[in-house]
């Protein structure tokens, strides 16, 4: 058994993937997610085994692209009529300065993991890659950092 040609694969699933993305991210972002889904699929397609669940694999990619789109929304610029007069420390604008100072006092691995998770909105896998650790170690560092913050912050 061999994989079908990629174009045949696209033709078979594109409408379903587009409907899924449109429902997941809305009409405005669906086109970009759709394109990114099939670009990622094209890159990985030659490495797939012939007995792979192609539809499930494609929808996993589409789901991840939808999640990326949702995360990116939080980082997009928000149009404002007037800009504020002053800009403080980047993480402290509109936030809790004492909390961010407490984050700064965490041990280095925990501090970086917490910042990447909550200021960078990275997934644990991405945190692991960024810190050259495993996903589980990244999850543990965030957990331990939050535990210490709760002790200090909540008292």
- Indicate the structural class: mainly alpha
Task: List unreliable stretches of 5+ residues.
Answer: none
Order of helices and strands: HHHHHHH
Bin the strand percentage. under 5%
Biggest sheet features: none
Helix content: 55-70%
- Count of DSSP H/I helices: 7
Distance between the termini: 62 Å
Number of strands: 0
Rg to the nearest angstrom? 21 Å
Mean pLDDT: 83
| Overall body shape | flat
Fold blueprint:
Layout: H1 6-25, H2 27-44, H3 54-73, H4 97-104, H5 108-119, H6 124-131, H7 135-153
Short structural description:
This protein has 155 residues and is mainly alpha-helical.
Report on this model:
With 155 residues, the protein is mainly alpha-helical. The protein is built from 7 helices and no strands. It is flat. It starts with 5 loop residues before the first helix and ends with a helix.
What labels describe this entry?
0% strand, 155 residues, 68% helix
């Amino acid at each position: 058994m061999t994989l079908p040609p990629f174009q045949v694969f696209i033709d078979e699933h594109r409408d379903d993937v587009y409907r899924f993305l449109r429902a997941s991210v809305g009409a405005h972002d669906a086109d970009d997610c759709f394109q990114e889904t099939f670009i990622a699929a094209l890159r990985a397609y030659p490495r797939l085994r012939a007995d792979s669940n192609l539809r499930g694999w494609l929808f996993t990619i589409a789901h991840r692209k939808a999640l990326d789109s949702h995360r990116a929304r939080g980082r997009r610029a928000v149009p404002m009529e007037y800009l504020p007069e002053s800009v403080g420390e980047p993480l402290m604008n509109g936030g809790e300065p004492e909390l961010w100072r407490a984050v700064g006092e965490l041990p280095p691995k925990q501090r970086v993991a917490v910042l990447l998770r909550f200021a960078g909105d990275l997934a644990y896998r991405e945190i692991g890659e960024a810190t050259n650790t495993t996903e589980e170690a990244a999850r543990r560092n965030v957990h331990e950092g939050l535990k210490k913050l709760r002790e200090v912050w909540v008292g």
